[in-house]
Amino acid sequence: MCGIIGYIGKECSANKIVLEGLKRLEYRGYDSVGVAAVDVQKRLVIKKDVGKIEEVHEKLNLLEPSSKITLGHCRWATHGAPTRENAHPHIDCKGNVAVVHNGVIENFLELKEELLEKGHRFASRTDTEVVAHLVEEGLDSGESLYNATVNALRRLKGSYALAIISTMEPDKIVCARNESPLVIGLSENSAFCASDIPAILPYTNKVIVLNNGEVAVLEAGKVEIKRVSDNMPVSREAKVIEWTIEQAEKQGYAHFMLKEIHEQPTSLRNALRLQEQYLDLITTFLDRGDKIFLLAAGTSHYACIAASYMFSKLARLATYPVISSEFIENYGDSLGIDTVVLAVSQSGETYDTLKAVDYARMKAATILGITNVVGSTLTRISRAYIVQQSGPEIGVAATKSYTAQLIVLAQLALKLAKIRGKLSQDEIDELKTNLYNIPDIVENILEKREEKVKEIAKKYAKENLFIFLGRGISTATALEGRLKLLEISYTPSLAYPAGESKHGPISVIEEGTPTIFICPNDETRKEIIGNIMEMKARGAKIISVCEEDDQKIKNLSDDIIEMPKQIHPILTPIPYIIPLQLLAYYIAVERGLDPDKPRNLAKSVTVP
Ligand code: M6R
Predict the structure, then answer these.
(1) Ligand 1 pocket at CB < 6 A
(2) What would the pLDDT profile of 341-365 be if each residue is shown by its tens digit?
């Protein structure tokens, strides 16, 4: 998992542009960073080291040398530990070729062996370095940079977004894509490539998304795209991206995560403006399915768990939420032409999800997608898809993308209920009114409850174990609340359906263990009160997220976070997760951690 960027222009500002772009890509990986530039004497200059971008820049001054062509890379190690040697860019034996890469070259060991036998010298333990040496082979036999790159690409197995430069042709960047995202940006006098759009948006909003199996040659103000397999030219118009740069920056918040939590009223409104025809199409496919799987990883999986309650309760339709990495093993043999797979992925690039989707496609299943990224792999392999319109999410912890997924899934459940004739028109109208109120409710919670959550975070920040419990659809909220806390504050935490407590987990409760109950006023309320009593009797500190004026739950709780009344039970996962996102954020901040860059994690996990 890494971020790559390349720039070529007519002015000597390449390093500055690449450095700025790297800062916007840092969420993709931040264990090491590097740049490769061809200086005015046409020498290749490599600067790289372990550490975050600012640290490495302070040490090495990444703004120099003055150059018109530069590549940049921020790394999240997959092959080879985070060391200076393994940091990108990687070069060939002569120091004429530089390569940056995001992905995994699966057959690198056999290629490396072959290249070693031919006398190539390797400086790193990465899979990427073979690419530099393969290109060197081509250049040595008189090929152009383009031909040498294409011949190298044809030998690679695995995933890559690659950008390559050479001192022999210092007016070109050759870049290519297979299963790792890569976009190209164009302006009058320059050209860019990058792992995603925000990296280049300050400089151009004209963007071309490169498809799998395509290679592009970038020159100042010019791009030429071809297919790797047969060198056939590809003609594709650049799209004009409407995002502003501000959307991709922090807007005065201390962290992207906090900014993105506060963006939820807007992102929810956007997700309610989806085109009906796409919702209708997906609904029709879901209705035709014999078996329906909701496929996702991490936070997106929890959105699917909530969705399975929505589909069942509103449309009387049983669906199976399955963790992507378990899908093939668990259900692979049962798939067929009547299977429908609805894959949910913020990035649309999660390896586990795409692998499971590929398998299901091979078994003739119908693939549907919900994602946040236009042009992502998921959008290209789905029969029909919905883009949830959350805008770029930079914080590693999914927040606004989760609630947007939920509101998209709720719309699908409602439509399904309608076409299956499971709800009356009055019920549908009432639910719709509720649905369209959700962004205002979330806005209200953010305005009125943030201070209370901050107080609770301060009080419990030093605890070393948290428990999250919910019943029914709130099980999803408990799981997602726990994941948020766990991933950014590194606090060991448990979450499970509250009814499971007495089947084992209750034994971990000690005097003072903070136990968070998600208890909306739905049909599970009576039973969850029983669970609160069980935990309280064993000394747990009870923190409840419940409806305002719920006196009974208030009386049993040490701390409460009050939610507005009259939220339809099926929609409670959206507002009820907001205080838990804030709780995780403020606990991480109290502990002196950076919530945007949790250790060992990356925003989108595009490797096995
Ligand atoms: O892009 P995706 O929705 O497919 O990502 C899936 C998970 O990697 C992701 O939700 C992860 O769990 C989040 N960082 C959690 O906040």
Answers:
(1) 297-300, 345-347, 350, 353, 396-398, 483, 487, 604-605
(2) 999 999 999 999 999 999 999 999 9
